[in-house]
Amino acid sequence: MISRDLAIALKEAGLRWHPESGDRFQLALSSDVEPEVEADVFTVSDMTIESRRTPSGVTILAFNGTTEWALDAVSVEEAIWLPAEEQLRELLRGAFRSLRRLPDAYEVEAEIAGERLRFEHPDASEAYGMALLELVTRSR
User: Fold this and answer.
1) Rounded to an integer, what is the distance from CA 31 to the centroid of its chain?
2) CA geometry: angle 51, 54, 60, nearest 5 deg
3) Buried b (16+ CB within 10 A) or exposed e, 50-78
4) Where are the alpha helices (DSSP H) in the chain?
5) Backbone angles phi, psi at 100, to 5 degrees
6) Signed CA dihedral, 38, 42, 48, 50: sign only
7) pLDDT at 122
8) How many degrees, rounded to 5, is the angle at CA 22 between CA 50 and CA 3?
9) Confidence at 13, pLDDT banded by 50, 70, 90
10) CA 111 to CA 64: how far, in whole Å?
11) How far apart are CA 112 and CA 118, in angstroms?
12) What's the mean pLDDT when you consider all of the chain?
């Protein structure tokens, strides 16, 4: 799972999330959310938390049967998507070239704007996320 900081950077760079069952996310701090909830990771599920589209076109995440705290739903804009490694690789699309295991890290190679770039991190997901952030930033 990528770090919250990288997930926020991807969101701020313009990465759009279309929630699906199995997706993980955290909540952005707002007046409606307690600060200690910031570290909690939620999973979209048809049985517990599901993605719903309101009649006005806003996507919300509905907390069905949640008894721990009084939170019925949050807008997708109030959520921070934590894409999985395979989702990050898929989002890189044709830019992805390779994943290599180095002695102490993983290296993702991507071709972005005609340039071959390498992104290294001890966690493969984070290396993929760094490459995706570069792709999204340059695509603006």
Assistant:
1) 22
2) 35
3) bbeeeeeeeebbebeeeeeeeeebbebeb
4) 4-13, 85-92, 124-139
5) -120, 145
6) positive
7) 98
8) 110
9) very high
10) 42
11) 10
12) 88
Give per-residue pLDDT as tens, 95-105: 999 999 999 99
Phi, psi angle pair for 38, to nearest 5°:
-55, -40
Mean pLDDT, residues 12-41: 83
Q: Which of 83, 11, 16 has its CA nearest to residue 43?
A: 83
SS3 92: helix
Q: How far apart are CA 111 and CA 117, in angstroms?
A: 6
Burial class of residue 107 in the structure, from the number of CB atoms within 10 Å of its CB (0-12 exposed, 13-18 middle, 19+ buried): middle
Q: Which helix (H) or strand (E) holds 98?
A: strand 96-101
Please measure the distance between the N-terminal and C-terminal CA atoms of the chain and give it in whole angstroms. 25
Apex 112 CA angle, 111 and 115, nearest 5: 70
Q: In what order do the strands lie in the sheet with 24-27?
A: 42-43, 24-27, 79-81
- Of 46 and 135, the structure prediction assigns the larger pLDDT to 135
